[in-house]
């Protein structure tokens, strides 16, 4: 069992333990007649959300009055109308501020549930039970919640921390390799930012990495430690938290150019390869470190050749609704475990991308 404590505006534990789904009731603590609403998507519901499954049984045994809200899976449903459906459901069932929500699923479920928790009755408690590798490595920790608007991804949201993150490594058994790779990209990102040991673990694993739940859990715990340190220092992203956006300027552009056919994790992998290549070409990153990044990404199984030209990427990056002003902030990997923020004028972005195409 691995237990980490995050000291953000709310203090909470991240627990990683085999069989944790069947112990959720114990971990959440005294029910005192409270209601809990499991929020999940239709895929994860079939696998882990049914009343005969361990999670539900554990919650009822602990005395919770258990409800469930299921929404259709996929980024298209990470929107305000799903949130409205959830809010109405909670109100119809008279949830009060002492009741709680439980996000059972991947990053989409966590982001929507967190946002619903932040807004229902001006804020109720929620628990993250990540079931995708991406969610345990990254999205379930740190308190960023939100939904997409028609103008772009994650444009409405709130900072709202969970009161517990509970991960059961056994859920990885039903996750495809492609989806595991999405989380792996974020784990490699954490390694590049602050923990070279993550890179060593991935680099020295001989092929069976994606099937080894214990190793994946160890990697997730290390990545969470990196995120915890940054979030504790800069919860609302006024500075250092932006380091977590390593590779994301190019990644968001790649996702957009592909009309979201290339997943976020795979785009982040390409984006990290690009930014390190460009930084190495400008003498900002050690050449050997750039080569190490590319080699680890390839070994993990990522295709790194970006299918778009620099004009297409620049257009997509500069139309990002979150971009402000005449400059853009890039995260530059300098050496193993060391990154820094660098502002460049928007007019220089295309030339920077050009140096990064590999
Ligand atoms: N809040 C944050 O800090 C943060 C950070 C990174 C990403 N995100 C967000 O996370 C989202 C992506 O997360 P994701 O990749 O987990 O997507 P997701 O939630 O859509 O999950 C991916 C797919 O896997 C399925 N799934 C989940 N767990 C499973 C399991 N154990 N077995 C079988 N299938 C399973 C889901 O039903 C879904 O179809 C994006 O919307 C992104 O914006 C948020």
What does the model show?
This protein has helices at 24-28, 42-48, 54-61, 80-92, 107-119, 133-139, 177-194, 196-203, 213-233, 248-257, 264-281, 287-300, 310-318, 349-356, and strands spanning 2-7, 11-16, 35-41, 65-71, 100-105, 125-130, 144-149, 152-159, 164-167, 327-335, 338-345. With 358 residues, the chain is an alpha/beta fold. It has 2 domains: 2-174, Rossmann fold, CATH 3.40.50; 177-356, Dehydroquinate synthase-like, alpha domain, CATH 1.20.1090. Strands 1-2-9-6-5-3-4 form a 7-stranded mixed β-sheet, with helices on both faces. Strand 10 and strand 11 form a beta hairpin. Helix 7 runs parallel beside helix 11 (264-281), helix 7 runs antiparallel to helix 12 (287-300) and helix 13 (310-318) crosses helix 14 (349-356). The mean pLDDT is 95. It binds nicotinamide-adenine-dinucleotide (NAD). Nicotinamide-adenine-dinucleotide binds at residues 41, 43-44, 47, 73, 75, 78, 105-109, 111, 131-132, 134-135, 138-139, 142, 144, 154, 171, 174-175, 179, 182, 264.
């Amino acid at each position: 069992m691995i237990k980490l404590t995050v000291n953000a505006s709310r203090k909470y534990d991240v627990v990683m333990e085999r069989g944790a789904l069947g112990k959720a009731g114990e971990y959440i603590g005294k029910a005192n007649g409270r209601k809990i609403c499991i929020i999940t998507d239709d895929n994860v519901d079939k696998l882990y959300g049914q009343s005969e499954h361990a999670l539900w049984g554990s919650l009822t045994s602990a005395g919770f009055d258990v409800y469930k809200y299921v929404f259709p899976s996929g980024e298209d449903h990470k929107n305000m109308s799903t949130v409205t459906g959830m809010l109405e459901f909670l109100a119809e069932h008279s949830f009060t501020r002492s009741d709680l929500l439980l996000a059972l699923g991947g990053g989409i479920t966590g982001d929507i549930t967190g946002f619903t928790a932040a807004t229902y009755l001006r804020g109720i408690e929620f628990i993250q039970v990540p079931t995708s590798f991406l969610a345990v490595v990254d999205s379930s920790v740190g308190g960023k919640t939100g939904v997409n608007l028609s103008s772009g991804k994650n444009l409405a949201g709130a900072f709202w921390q969970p009161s517990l993150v509970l991960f059961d490594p056994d859920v990885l058994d039903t996750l495809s390799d492609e989806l595991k790779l999405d989380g792996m990209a974020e784990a490699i990102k954490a390694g590049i930012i602050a923990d070279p040991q993550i890179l060593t673990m991935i680099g020295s694993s001989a092929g069976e990495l994606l099937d080894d739940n214990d190793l994946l859990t160890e990697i997730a715990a290390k990545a969470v430690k990196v995120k915890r340190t940054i979030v504790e220092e800069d919860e609302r992203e006024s500075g250092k938290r932006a380091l977590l956006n390593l590779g994301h300027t190019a990644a968001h552009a790649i996702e957009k150019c592909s009309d979201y056919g290339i997943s976020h994790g795979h785009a982040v992998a390409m984006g990290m390869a690009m930014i390190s290549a460009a930084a190495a070409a400008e003498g900002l990153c050690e050449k050997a470190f750039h080569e190490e990044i590319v080699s680890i990404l390839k070994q993990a199984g990522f295709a790194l050749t970006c299918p778009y030209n620099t004009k297409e990427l620049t257009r997509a990056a500069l139309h990002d609704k979150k971009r402000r002003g005449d400059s853009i902030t890039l995260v530059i990997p300098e050496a193993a475990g060391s990154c820094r923020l660098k502002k460049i004028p928007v007019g220089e972005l295309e030339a920077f991308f050009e140096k990064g195409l590999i």
